[in-house]
Amino acid sequence: MINITNKVDCCGCNACEDVCPKKAISFKTDVEGFWYPEVDTDLCIKCDLCNKICPVINNTKVKHNDYKKPLCYASINKDIEVRFDSTSGGIFSALAEKTYKEKGYVGGAIFEEDFSVKHIVSSDRKDLLKLRSSKYLQSNAIGFYKKVKLLLKNGEKVLVCGTPCQIAALKLYLQKDYDNLILVDFICRGINSPKVFRKYLDYLEERYNSKVVYFKAKNKELGWRKLTSKVVFKNKATLYDTWDSSYFTAGYLQTNVYSRPSCYDCKFKGFPRIADITIADYWGAEKSVGSEMDNDLGTSLVMLNSQKGKNYFESIQTHLLSKEISLESTIDGNRALLSPLAQPLVNRTEFYKDLDQRPFLEVAKKYIKRHDDIQITQKGKIKNIIKFFVSIFRISGMSIPTFYKNIKYNFFYRNIKTSIGLGHHILIYKNCILNINKNAKVIIEGSFSIGKKTFPKSRIETRFSVGDNAVFKIGKGDSYILYGSDIEVFKGAQMIINGDFGTNINTTIICANKIQIGTGTKIGRDVTIRDNNGNHFMSINGYKNSKELLIGQHCWLCEGCTLLSGTKLGDGVIIGAKSVVTSHIPSHSLVFGNPAEIIDRDIYWKY
After folding, report:
1. Which end of the chain is less enclosed by CB atoms within 10 A, N or C?
2. How far from 453 is each of 341, 462, 501, CA to CA, in Å?
3. φ and ψ at 139, to 5 degrees?
4. E strand spans, 189-318
5. What is the 3-state secondary structure (H, E, C) of 271-297?
6. Closest C-alpha among 496, 559, 553, 499 to residue 527
7. pTM of structure
């Protein structure tokens, strides 16, 4: 009879419930959100099957394979749509596709409607969209082991992906090897509490006043290395929660307090691996395989641990781009391959007590220091000041007027709000003309380059004007306007850019009313944006000379396109070259033409 007296001794795999012939075992969730087995002694017949298939107790019995050390590959899926939608390089999808094509079954973790996670077995290829991508919290596998065993006994082909402890539990549960089974695990840093994740989602729903309808870890739109969680709400709002802003990601990586107690004494590290194939993020790919397989879209590390796994991987090579690498090259970026999770760096008991009694945001701020929350030290401020002066010397060269402009606009204009020590400044390149009215308000909350040049010797003029009582604000991050651009904010108008903004050459933005541009928007060559018709009037009922123009976050405006007054772009919109837009375009649409028309939806892109 299984009896958990120390929570370190249970990985929560659920296999003991599946193996119990009398249904004497059930699971109870503790204050941390993790479940543990409880035995009904009135039903228990003391067959001891639960102890015999426990992976923690019997780890040495299954920790063997054909290869003591795996064959290692860097690999990506050639289908860029699959790769975009995957956690790493899209290898799980390629493995699963082969099984589906052979009329087999694929097992893995999916999100339920409430964003809890469970393991399923599926013969429907449509389920791959749900099975794909890591979930980063404990999955409920009750009933899963029974289903897999039944399918295998009936001669069905099955591919299963799970944590190393789940794969060990399945091997023990099956009690024999099956030729029609492929086991896939991943390098696991630690499995997180469903309770913490749900509290995080509750906090986001309160913040956005809407239900979460979609969650994707390691979304690629801002680049793989930003570890972005994309969250979509019922009200159509979208959050790109990057590693430096997400309390869930920061808490997981920084405090180690979210994970299950057994993760601090994981029995499944090192070699040989138990699964036929191990997959993971290949951190360090940029050094080993180059841009063809890296380009910040996710690269997979594939470890082949058995001959069966090797044969299976080789059979899908037409769908992949792969390169053999040394095992040693994988270690630095994947320490979790060899070592269990370090002990929590905060008081675990107090953390979970606070989680029950206080709002999530209050708890997060108490225990987690996101990059966004870290106060810049005096030393850091001095570094930023030095970097600023190095930058203006570099862009000014021998031009004293350019150097003088940078000093004047950053230090001596009271209506321009900068903070050099915090990295909030304007960098003015040569051949820039600035006209900022003394009654204008300019707020700089990041690094903002005006007239940035691809060709340093170019004399193409850049113009930047903010009129009487006008407001120009640019948010955090690095933003820039390339040379040849003309940015004009007229009297009383507002132009607000949320940050991480960039234009190519010859951009024209004319703001007479209000223009707002979301974070991460990028603009191609010769683009025109204007919220007004230049005080030209037409005898049309309801005609207005100027209407506010709103651009969502992470939009891409391609070469020569024009956005006119009244335009409203949702998040992630792509405007095709030479297109003319005057209306509302929903999020993640691709539009072309004059007037612009939607030609595709649910399109995602990375810069």
Report:
1. C
2. 46, 10, 16
3. -105, 145
4. 212-219, 228-233, 238-241, 277-281, 300-304
5. CCCCCCEEEEECCCHHHHCCCCCCCCC
6. 559
7. 0.92
Given a cut of 90, whether residue 362 has pLDDT beyond it is yes
Helices (H), 341-452: 348-357, 360-367, 378-396, 400-411
Q: What is the DSSP letter of 498?
A: -
Start-to-end C-alpha separation, the chain: 56
* Alpha-carbon span 305 to 544, nearest angstrom: 68
* Contact predicate 431/459, CB 8 Å: yes
For 307-337, how does the pLDDT look when each residue is reduced to its tens digit (9 = 90+)?
A: 999 999 999 999 999 999 999 999 988 999 9
Pairing of strands 597-600, 590-592: antiparallel
* pLDDT for 592: 97
Q: What is the pLDDT of residue 534?
A: 76
The answer to whether 573 touches 585, Cβ cutoff 8 Å, is yes
User: Which among 527, 524, 518 is positioned nearest to 554, based on CA atoms?
Assistant: 518
| 320-325 β-sheet, strand order | 139-140, 117-122, 105-111, 158-161, 181-186, 277-281, 300-304, 71-77, 320-325
Tokens of 370: 């996101």
Structure tokens at 277: 């194939």
- CA–CA separation, 254 vs 183, rounded Å? 31
CA–CA separation, 538 and 301 (whole Å): 62
Q: Provide the percentage of residues in the chain whose pLDDT is more than 70.
A: 99
Yes or no: say if 235 and 210 are a contact pair by the CB < 8 Å rule: yes
Q: Are 487 and 473 in contact (CB under 8 A)?
A: no
Domains, the chain, in order of start with CATH, read: 67-191+263-337 (3.40.640), 194-258+347-373 (no CATH), 378-536+543-600 (2.160.10)
CA dihedral over 492, 407, 526, 554, signed as positive or negative: negative
Q: Measure the CA–CA gap between 163 and 11, rounded to whole angstroms.
A: 10
Q: What are the strands, taking DSSP E only, across 176-274?
A: 181-186, 212-219, 228-233, 238-241
Tell me, what DSSP letter sits at residue 375? Answer: P
What tens digit of pLDDT does each residue of 132-185 get?
Answer: 999 999 999 999 999 999 999 999 999 999 999 999 999 999 999 999 999 999
> For residue 495, which of 479, 476, 517, 480 has the smallest C-alpha distance?
517
SS3 at position 177: coil
**Which residue type is seen at 198?**
R
* Residue reference for tokens 């004009």: 488
**Structure token pair of residue 308:** 């069966």
Residue 344 DSSP one-character state: P
Task: Report the alpha-carbon distance of residue 538 to residue 39 in Å, rounded.
Answer: 81
Report how far Cα 167 is from the mean position of its chain's Cα atoms. Answer: 26
Place of tokens 């390169």: 323
Distance in angstroms (rounded) separating the CA atoms of residues 572 and 50: 50
Phi-psi bin for 155: left (phi > 0), alpha (psi -120 to 50), beta? left
Report whether pLDDT(538) > 70.
Answer: no
pLDDT, the chain, mean: 95
Query: What is the DSSP pairing of strand 425-428 with strand 556-557?
Result: unpaired
Q: In DSSP terms, which residues pair with 581 in a beta bridge?
A: 563
> Among candidates 515, 511, 513, 510, which has minimal Cα distance to 497?
515
Q: What are phi and psi of 81, to 5 degrees?
A: -65, -40
Asked if the bond preceding 272 is cis, omega within 30° of 0, the reply is: yes
**3-state SS assignment for residue 152:** helix
Per-residue DSSP letter, 115:
S
